Amino acid sequence: MKSKLFHPIFKFIPFIVLFLYFNNLEGQIYDKVGIANTESLKTLIHTQNNRERAGTYLKITEGYFVIDPDSCMKYAQMALEMATNSDDEQLIAEANLYMGKANYFRGNYAESISHYLESSDYYKKVNNLPKILLLDELLVFAYYYSGNYDVTLAHLEEIKTHLKYMPDSSYLAHFVIGMGYFYRYLACYDEAISLFLQYNEINKKHPVPLAGLALSNGHLGYCYQQTGKLKKAIDCFREDIRISDDLKINTRSYLQLGEVYEKMDSLKKALDYYNYSIPFYEKHGNIHYKSLASLGLGRIYLRLGKYDKSRSELMNALSSAEWVYNNKLLYKTLNTEIKSFYTSLQIVEKFKEEISLKIIADIHFELYKLFTKQLLYPNALDEYVKYHQTLDKLNNFKQVATIEEIKDRYESEKKEQQINLLSQEKAMSQLKLRQSGIIVFALSGLFLLALIVAVLLIRMIRIRAEQKSVVLKQKLLRSQMNPHFLYNSLASIQKFIVTEDSQTASVYLSRFSNLVRNILDSSVEEFVSLEQEVNTIKYYLELQKVRYIEKMDYAIELDKQLDIENIQVPPMLAQPFIENAIEHGIKHKHTKGLVTIRISGNNNRVILEVEDDGVGRQKAQEFLNQKNIKHKSLATSITQDRIKILNKKSRQKISLEIEDLKDSTNRGIGTKVRFEIAVG
User: Is the pLDDT assigned to residue 255 strictly greater than 60?
Assistant: First the structure.
């Protein structure tokens, strides 16, 4: 009975520590990035051994966080390579943590999450609580900015259940405001309001930092604004302004008050706040808020019929928003931006690109309405086109590529029709000139008939090839989406849920969803980036490893010289053979097996190998024969058919070789599948 009473408290202790890690003291409400002296650190490298050098590389990496993502990635990779060579598990875990952050600041969220999880596995094994909690925080940010909102919410909901066990204190206050931030940006306004109100209530008993109180009121006002409680929103924004003015810090509440009064049709008050906002944000170096204030003025002047003023403000807004988009900065300098944010982890370039595109789209739409009011229809049409072009960039870059592909096909077919038409007209003119010669007429008719038959035959061949390609894609998709594999993977995830290992369940559920998404995306594409193909293989192997945790392991050996982001390869060539390696090779092995994926070559040719140390194809067939199972490998036949079609359509040829590996006694010890893909 006693253990049951204390169980919730013990579960909660880690989250107190998480608070301490999340936000400690008054000065840390606005997080500052510690910048190391990277140049002096670089001079130490030549005098150090490999392990010391790896540690120095990590310090250099930390010095480049946020301010130089490319250098950050470079030194993080060097540190991980050194750590791996040292065989020091703790150093490898630390290097993976830094690689996660380096990828995060470059917007490579999937890679970031993968490295965080690698690091977290080690720290869980050695029960290093501070590191585990730090990685939980980093994962929440990475899941959120990657758009994986369901997993983000799952993490937050799990943490939220423990809040009731924490006594009112300044520690709880900091923890609550961190939770409220994520709910606010996930548009879960009721949950966010509850947390920000709780933060303000705690302040009455345990005073919190004034900067935190200002931040809480600003967020609370925004949540009230979005839920239509405008009077409450105004009170919160004014309280934020009062505290922020005393502290001489930046606040969004001047802009928010302009938006609230605009929504209430109190246009004079809205104009006053917008007009005050522009020099205020100019003084604080906030280009993003300045563009929003100019956009607000442009909207109101348009409503009031002051078209010249409206146009002037909208053009100012567009100039500022485009500056944000081009420079990937919300403030005039990165240093100012770092000082003004709740935490440096919010400074994400892709996020800035997205919000600036939203503003640019809104500005073009307001300009379209303005020019329409002024009867300047060519200008209005131009702005309407720019509005939709911006939406295309914002919503779906692939959609733009698809539209261009459709246009290219249309132009190609149009040219083909013109050629056919010219050919027919030429044939008709020749027939008219030779009407007097019956034989010539007959030959011309036969020629025309033969031409039509040839065209029809060519088209029929093309249609059949396309149908065959579609059938192959469907077969390939069915082989990828193996029902047994899907069922077993979900069953494994369910096991983690039943055993209350919800964090592991959410991690593998995220990997499962990423795998399914990648497979479905790849199934409609003829070529994908090598990076996406590697990620799909990795997700698949991770899930198979959960199913066969005691039976298999895997290794991915990737040539660092390959430009995997830009190299294009046919999707899902290797996966059927990986499945065969596990299901028919390693599954029948008495000891733990290994699947090795090797990717090498150069930017003109990629060599992809799938090797397993299983029982071999001959032995696997014997096991099937013993069970009276008739098995025909779909992997080989489907893939060979795909390669034939791809080789016909492209000059970039693909070859496939399958080698049975044998020992000195001619006993099967595995299989190696080798693809050679011409690229470029």
Answer: yes
E strand or H helix at 659: strand 654-662
Beta-sheet strands, E only, within 533-613: 552-558, 568-569, 593-601, 605-612
Q: Which of 125, 66, 75 is nearest to 95 (CA)?
A: 75
- Cβ contacts of residue 680 below 8 Å, gap of 6+? 603, 604, 652
* pLDDT, position 398: 39
* pLDDT tens by residue, 534-546: 988 888 888 888 7
pLDDT at position 35 over 60? no
Tokens of 152: 């983000």
Query: How many other C-beta atoms are found inside a 10 Å radius of the C-beta of residue 40?
Result: 8
Whether 64 and 71 have beta carbons less than 8 Å apart is answered as yes
Vertex 399, ends 395 and 400: CA angle to 5°?
Answer: 100
pTM given for the model: 0.50
Instruction: Judge whether 496 and 534 are in contact, CB under 8 Å.
Output: no
Write a three-state SS string for 403-426.
Answer: HHHHHHHHHHHHHHHHHHHHHHHH
- Determine which helix (DSSP H) or strand (DSSP E) holds 578, and give its type and residue range: helix 575-580
Nearest to 585 by CA among 554, 558, 559, 560: 554
Q: At what angle do helices 69-86 and 89-105 cross, to 10 degrees?
A: 160
Average per-residue pLDDT in the chain? 77
Tens-digit pLDDT profile for residues 612-630: 998 888 888 887 777 765 5
Q: What is the pLDDT, as a whole number, of residue 419?
A: 47
**Averaged over 361-373, what is the pLDDT?**
93
Question: Rounded distance, CA 588 to CA 631, Å?
Answer: 15
Neighbours of 353 (CB within 10 A): 17
